[in-house]
């Protein structure tokens, strides 16, 4: 028996369908064009000498020998680039009172982290440039390095930025309801101090850039492995004083970004300057060792939090202090305080309570900068909240599912405003919780856990609910003065052959942005998806927009494509109606054919409309001007963010003798609104979960007391690998946003948001019989054994 | 243009491909010992790319036939130094006569590395965290070394001297490793604790025992990732010889590790924790040996 027909069964119905990505075959076949594949005539190669000290004064730099080396074209120090590049400061106006020192491509007189680029060499090959680096002598005078959070906050300790009274970058406070009163009258209070290690993105493709300044035209072209070509067009224009229209940024194929490739890096800014100084193309590709000490890091939080409950387990209040250390500068142009800001605002987000207080303190230290990385702030807020909820459940005597069922905001109670100030349109915590219970066979897992415990096998079960921020409006960056767009633009053309070309401002980094835009355009126009070509990532070609970050590609980019396609379809139908002597409303397009809207009888192929419009306009009624190219912009309105929600669960086994943790299975129920391509959505969830499991179990940038990164290679910095990863079971609840026609929200960060929280709860569940607890991520064998007091 | 223009590279060096052992030794001597032999290159190439090493000459030894092949020779299995890690898994002679190497091989790094890395290279580097150097100790192997003054054989027990320091003199080359043939009255066992499959282990151990019925007549147990060198644990061995493998004996062997091992401090794992893990692992691997592993 066949399943009943659904809307997916009509031709060209691509929204909601798992169709393959048009670019997948090309990339798999090795035909991708990444920055490192790019070779321009007369191109030169840059390499950077890096500081071995975490904090030091530059006394002198001797570059004579390096300059004399054959094949070396330029050796540049801070002062050389400072002459042509305006400094930048990583602050935003809506973060009141935040400070950060001005930055330049290369430092003038002081280094502030180990690995900071100090001198640039440009040569005929990377190898020659590296030979030259070995001939440069830099005389440093060591300064006291500020390494850990405590010493950074010490009154009277070393201060990183001269002229500052202390190492504080930013403080924020939230206080809603009657927190003190709630704690004073609580039947139960749970409290814990958590720590979250630093980690970093480790993209398959490292940062890469080719800057090509043409002095004759006064024009700069930058081929850049970035998520945000428009943002960089603006920045290169303003910091190097080149009119925006003469700056072109091209982001071709990109091998992963995860938020890491949307910040200003000193080397990238330097490479643009080097190209200007030389009037030749200059390439720089970070090697893996450089990536570890110069890509942004993320997390690095210490959170003290408590939760008050009544006797029945109703959550009454939360009180949170988040200390986070961000490196020596705040990153430009998005700052390094967004993560902390989101940590304190996402706390307790799934729950109904109204009394909330939080303090955030963002601190400078002598390490590489931290900034936005996949699921900014979410894993911290989720782990803290969900661990406290589990601790509370144990104290009250409730099952983890029961306490959540009791405290979630009801699915029918939306819209709601959280005590942290977020406005939620519609979430589905209750439905998701119910679905997860069935999906993971929770009762079965608990029975198995009890059985195995009798035999000395310690399994743990953990769950963690989350709220994810997607589809950001100008409230995110625009209001703070950043020239970062929250709108997107698309230009659609019907080609003379009756196909569609879509230029759109959202970008592709491997997640399938181009695939879903293709699906939306093909679906809305009524064409086979093979007849739609999507082009992204070139500021000279595609309209200005926000591009792809913060889970905005599907929700905002997708809606832009949808609305633009509807305009194009309207224009096509108008011309078709003239040709066929019908009303436009009586016609439709299915599978590339003009049809009668009612009967679906074929009238004429769309290619014939295109042929007539482009080549035989003389046959159209006088005064007709066919508009077969449309442009359209869409900026989100209504809710400032489209929040999504979901819940994850996992089962794992702790070897209580070795402290090793074996992941057995992971589950997620997720609600991203309208699902455009289930396969891509599921892979976003899987990839996100694996990144979260990496954070939970493996990834940490470890520093020595003097501020040296001690595990900055892939031999020592452990990323999650397939053998250790569990199967991931996925289910969906769909609550489309009413703010758009498409109804899609973001999904890219949902997996990462709660995976580590889930593991934290499961490990604590596993070791509960030993009266042991863990409150620190990553959860390493060392930490487990210490918690178990095994040695 | 070629890849050299974009890749991060080693400092320039000369390259010589030797056809015979004598050619290789001669080239090394003529370079004034500012040379490195290269076979699989799985440790050397990263060191060159990071410019941690910058020899004037690389001598490619992978085309030297005398260093290839696996064959029985008297009471030994002669394993050519150029034998790749992956061949430890695929060669029937290894599985039959040196099954401990066969058992350890899947734990050696990842497939791509096993496809190129060589047995001789691993033993010559003597990484204290590597599986194979430690297994040569458990197997009572002999290492055949060619040098200017001829060829000699050194017992594994006398080969590993200190961190990355061995009985090899500058310009000498491991040509083969001799493993006493596995016998019917012997049993072996191997395991390691690595956070990810293929990583350097936090601790690992392999053992070869000769049994008379259920009584252990002789046993050699070797650990890796516990010291500056691969390490035999003679105290633990002594507690086991002459006994059968019951819980009490295993506990005694575990206790003896405290005298056998003094793990160095590392930034992640304290000496006490490493010793604890070594005890747990020894107990588990001995348990498996008792079951006839």
Low-pLDDT residue spans of chain B:
none
What is the mean pLDDT of chain B?
Answer: 95
Q: What is the oligomeric state here? A: heterodimer
Helix content of chain A: 25-40%
**Uncertain residue segments of chain A:** none
User: How much β-strand is present in the residues of chain A?
Assistant: 15-25%
| Main sheet summary of chain B | 5 strands, antiparallel
What is the CATH architecture annotation of the largest domain in chain A? 2-Layer Sandwich
Outline type of chain B: globular
GO molecular function (chain A): iron ion binding; oxidoreductase activity
Pfam family, one (chain A): Ald_Xan_dh_C
Domain Aldehyde oxidase/xanthine dehydrogenase a/b hammerhead (chain A): 29-144
Keywords (chain A): Molybdenum, Oxidoreductase
Descriptive account of the structure:
The complex is a heterodimer of chains A (791) and B (293). Chain A has 791 residues and is of the alpha+beta class. Chain A folds into three domains: 7-32 and 487-634, Aldehyde Oxidoreductase, domain 4, CATH 3.30.365; 35-143 and 206-254 and 261-293, Alpha-Beta Complex (Aldehyde Oxidoreductase, domain 3), CATH 3.90.1170.50; 375-423 and 430-466 and 641-788, Aldehyde oxidase/xanthine dehydrogenase, molybdopterin binding domain (Aldehyde Oxidoreductase, domain 4, 2-Layer Sandwich), CATH 3.30.365.10. Chain A is built from 20 helices and 29 strands. In chain A, the strands form seven sheets. Chain A has a seven-stranded mixed beta sheet, sandwiched between helices. In chain A, strands 7-15-14-13-8-29 form a six-stranded mixed beta sheet. A four-stranded mixed beta sheet of chain A has the order 18-26-27-28, sandwiched between helices. In chain A, β26 and β27 (661-671) form a beta hairpin. Chain A is globular and about 90 Å long. By secondary structure, chain B is α+β, with helices and mostly antiparallel strands. Helix content of chain B is 34%, strand content 26%. In chain B, the strands form four sheets. In chain B, strands 4-5-10-6-7 form a five-stranded antiparallel beta sheet. A four-stranded antiparallel beta sheet of chain B has the order 11-12-13-14. Chain B has a three-stranded parallel beta sheet with strand order 1-3-2, covered by helices on one side. In chain B, α10 (234-240) packs antiparallel against α11 (247-260) and α11 packs antiparallel against α12 (271-290). The longest helix of chain B has 20 residues, at 271-290. The chains are: A alpha+beta (791), B alpha+beta (293). At the A-B interface, α4 and α20 of A face α12 of B.
């Amino acid at each position: 028996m066949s399943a009943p027909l659904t809307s997916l069964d009509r031709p060209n119905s691509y929204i909601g369908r798992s169709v393959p990505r048009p670019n997948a075959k090309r990339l798999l076949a090795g035909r991708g064009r990444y920055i490192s594949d790019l070779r321009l005539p007369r191109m030169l190669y840059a390499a950077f000498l890096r500081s071995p000290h975490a904090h030091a004064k530059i006394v002198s730099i001797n570059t004579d020998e390096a300059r004399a080396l054959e094949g070396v074209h330029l050796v540049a120090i801070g002062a050389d680039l400072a002459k042509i590049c305006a400094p930048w400061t990583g602050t935003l106006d809506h973060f009141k009172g935040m400070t950060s020192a001005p930055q330049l491509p290369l430092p003038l007189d002081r280094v502030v982290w180990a690995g900071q680029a100090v001198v640039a060499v440009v040569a005929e090959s990377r190898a020659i440039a590296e030979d030259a680096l070995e001939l440069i002598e830099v005389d440093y005078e060591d300064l006291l390095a500020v390494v850990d959070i405590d010493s950074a906050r010490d009154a009277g300790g070393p201060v990183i930025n001269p002229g500052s009274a202390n190492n504080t970058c930013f403080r924020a406070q939230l206080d809603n309801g009657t927190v003190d009163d709630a704690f004073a009258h609580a039947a139960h209070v749970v409290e814990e101090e958590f720590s979250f290690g630093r980690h970093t993105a480790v993209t398959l493709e490292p940062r890469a850039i080719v800057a090509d300044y043409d002095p004759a035209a006064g024009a700069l072209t930058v081929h850049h492995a970035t998520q945000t070509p428009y943002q960089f067009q603006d920045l290169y224009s303003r910091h190097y004083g080149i009119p925006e229209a003469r700056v072109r940024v091209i982001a071709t194929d990109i091998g992963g970004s995860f938020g890491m490739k949307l910040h200003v890096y000193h080397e990238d800014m330097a490479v643009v300057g080097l190209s200007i100084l030389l009037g030749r193309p200059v390439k720089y590709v970070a090697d893996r060792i450089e990536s570890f000490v110069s890509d942004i890091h993320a997390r690095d939080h210490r959170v003290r939090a408590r939760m008050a409950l009544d006797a029945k387990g109703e959550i009454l209040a939360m009180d949170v202090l988040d200390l986070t250390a961000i490196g020596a500068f705040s990153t430009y142009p998005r700052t390094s305080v967004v993560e902390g800001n989101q940590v304190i605002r996402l706390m307790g987000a799934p729950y109904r309570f109204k009394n909330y207080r939080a303090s955030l303190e963002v601190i400078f230290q002598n390490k590489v900068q931290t900034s936005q990385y996949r699921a900014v702030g979410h894993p911290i807020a989720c782990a803290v909240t969900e661990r406290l909820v589990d601790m509370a459940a144990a104290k009250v005597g409730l099952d983890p599912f029961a306490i959540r069922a009791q405290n979630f905001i009801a699915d029918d109670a939306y819209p709601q405003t959280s005590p942290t100030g977020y406005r939620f349109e519609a979430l589905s915590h209750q439905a998701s919780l119910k679905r997860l219970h069935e999906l993971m066979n929770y009762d079965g897992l608990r029975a198995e856990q009890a059985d195995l415990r009798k035999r000395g096998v310690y399994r743990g079960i953990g769950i963690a609910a989350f709220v994810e921020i997607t589809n950001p409006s100008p409230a995110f960056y625009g209001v703070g003065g950043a020239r970062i767009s929250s709108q997107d633009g698309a230009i659609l053309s019907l080609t003379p052959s009756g196909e569609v070309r879509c230029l759109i401002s959202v970008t592709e980094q491997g997640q399938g942005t181009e695939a879903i835009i293709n699906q939306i355009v093909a679906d809305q126009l009524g064409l086979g998806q093979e007849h739609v070509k999507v082009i992204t990532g070139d500021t000279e070609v595609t309209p200005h927009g926000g591009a792809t970050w913060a889970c905005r590609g599907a929700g905002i980019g997708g809606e832009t494509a949808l609305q633009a396609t509807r305009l194009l379809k309207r224009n096509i139908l108008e011309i078709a109606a003239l040709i066929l002597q019908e009303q436009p409303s009586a016609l439709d397009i299915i599978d590339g054919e003009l049809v009668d809207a009612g009967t679906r009888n074929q009238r004429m192929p769309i290619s014939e409309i295109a042929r007539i419009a482009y080549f035989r306009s003389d046959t159209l009624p006088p005064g007709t001007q066919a508009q077969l190219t449309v442009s359209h912009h869409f900026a989100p309105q209504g809710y400032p963010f489209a929040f999504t929600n979901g819940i994850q669960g996992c089962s794992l086994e702790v070897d209580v003798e070795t402290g090793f943790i074996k992941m057995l299975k992971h589950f997620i129920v997720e609600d991203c609104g309208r699902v455009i391509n289930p396969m891509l959505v599921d892979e976003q969830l899987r990839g996100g979960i694996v990144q979260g499991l990496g954070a939970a179990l493996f990834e940490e940038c470890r520093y020595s007391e003097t501020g040296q990164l001690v595990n900055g290679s892939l031999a020592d910095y452990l990323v999650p690998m397939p053998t250790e990863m569990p199967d991931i079971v996925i289910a969906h609840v769909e609550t489309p946003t009413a703010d758009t026609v498409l109804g899609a929200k973001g999904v890219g960060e949902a997996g990462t948001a709660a995976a580590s929280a889930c593991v934290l709860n499961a490990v604590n569940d596993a070791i509960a019989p030993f009266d042991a607890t863990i409150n620190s991520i990553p959860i390493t064998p060392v930490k487990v054994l210490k918690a178990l007091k095994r040695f | 243009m070629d890849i050299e223009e974009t890749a991060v590279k080693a400092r320039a060096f000369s390259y010589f491909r030797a056809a015979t052992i004598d050619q290789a030794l001669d080239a090394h001597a003529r370079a004034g010992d500012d040379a490195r032999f290269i076979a699989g290159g799985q440790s050397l190439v990263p060191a060159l790319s990071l410019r941690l090493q910058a020899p004037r000459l690389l001598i490619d030894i992978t085309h030297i036939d005398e260093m290839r092949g696996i064959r029985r020779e008297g009471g030994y299995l002669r394993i050519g130094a150029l034998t790749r890690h992956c061949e430890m898994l695929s060669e029937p002679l290894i599985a039959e006569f040196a099954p401990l190497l066969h058992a350890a091989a899947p734990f050696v790094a990842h497939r791509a590395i096993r496809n190129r890395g060589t047995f001789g290279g691993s033993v010559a580097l003597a990484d204290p965290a590597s599986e194979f150097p430690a297994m040569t100790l458990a197997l009572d192997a002999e290492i055949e070394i060619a040098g200017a003054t001829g060829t000699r054989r050194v017992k594994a027990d006398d080969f590993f001297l200190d961190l990355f320091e061995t009985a090899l003199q500058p310009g000498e080359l491991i040509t083969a490793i001799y493993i006493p043939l596995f016998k019917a009255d012997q049993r072996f066992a191997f395991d390691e604790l690595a956070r990810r499959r293929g990583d350097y282990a936090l601790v690992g151990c392999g053992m070869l025992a000769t049994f008379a019925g259920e009584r252990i007549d002789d046993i050699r147990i070797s650990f890796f990732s516990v010291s500056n060198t691969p390490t035999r644990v003679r105290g633990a061995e002594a507690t086991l010889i002459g006994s059968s493998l019951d819980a009490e004996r295993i506990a005694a062997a575990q206790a003896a590790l405290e005298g056998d091992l003094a793990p160095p401090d590392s930034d992640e794992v304290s000496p006490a924790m490493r010793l604890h893990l070594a005890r747990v692992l020894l107990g588990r691997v001995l348990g498996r040996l008792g079951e006839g592993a």
